[in-house]
Amino acid sequence: xxxxxxAGEAAAGQSSSATSEPERVIPLDLEHLERHRxxxxxxxxxxxxVFDLLRTQxxxxxxxxxxxxxxxxSPTEASxxxxxxxxxxxxxxxxxxxxxxxxxxxxRRPSVLRYLGTQSEKSLHQYLHGQCTLxxxxxxxxxPRFSVLGNREPVANPAELLGSSRTENFLQELREQNEERIVxxxxxxxxSADDALAVLPRIDCAIMVVANGLSSEQEVRxxxxxxxxxxxxxxxxxxxxxxxxxxxxxxYGYTGEGx
Length: 259
Description:
Elements: E1 25-26, H1 30-35, H2 48-65, E2 69-73, H3 81-93, E3 99-104, H4 112-116, H5 124-128, E4 138-141, E5 146-149, H6 159-162, H7 165-177, E6 181-186, H8 195-199, E7 205-211, H9 217-229, E8 234-241, E9 252-256
Parallel strand pairs: 1-4, 2-6, 2-7, 3-5, 3-6, 7-8
Antiparallel strand pairs: 4-5, 8-9
């Protein structure tokens, strides 16, 4: 299995034994996942097909451009970006020829581990500060070809860390290390602080999650402008997180750039 082995070993000037130690598979609770709208883990859940469709659209564009890192962004909080990032990662991991590494860069409000119902020994921000090895952060949930780098606790004022050379080297190594792996990065909201702006130019492409009725039209326009101004980051499209009444059949609508 691939599972992000050795990812970013030199990013914090440390070596990691991720290539030599056996993977520690973390069991997942299906009921917990579905309570938190994580449905792509279970292929029998009808809504999982929505993320498979999004996966196909996203991977088609990424493959055509040799992109391997994908940011998931939103204008404001509570837009559903983390839920989408987890579901899309799981959907990609179901493909036999692909693997998915999900990175939680929303340091102020990390939630990936909470949504999965699990924990890691250490946090990603500790690794980037050189305080632990990658093995202490990297977890392999109960799904082949899916791995996670998360944070156990919030970090104050993380823009400096996200914009540091350590983070830049870390992302570059993640991108180059495995041609079959897609690295999905859950970023902070674009409007609330400059955290996402510090790291977004170092990521190949992005999709934006907009919650229906939550973000104002001006906030959406401002967020689109921010992403498009990052000349090195291509916006693949926008995902509309629909109203609760519509979620029963199809919780997301996707509009590709130029569509």
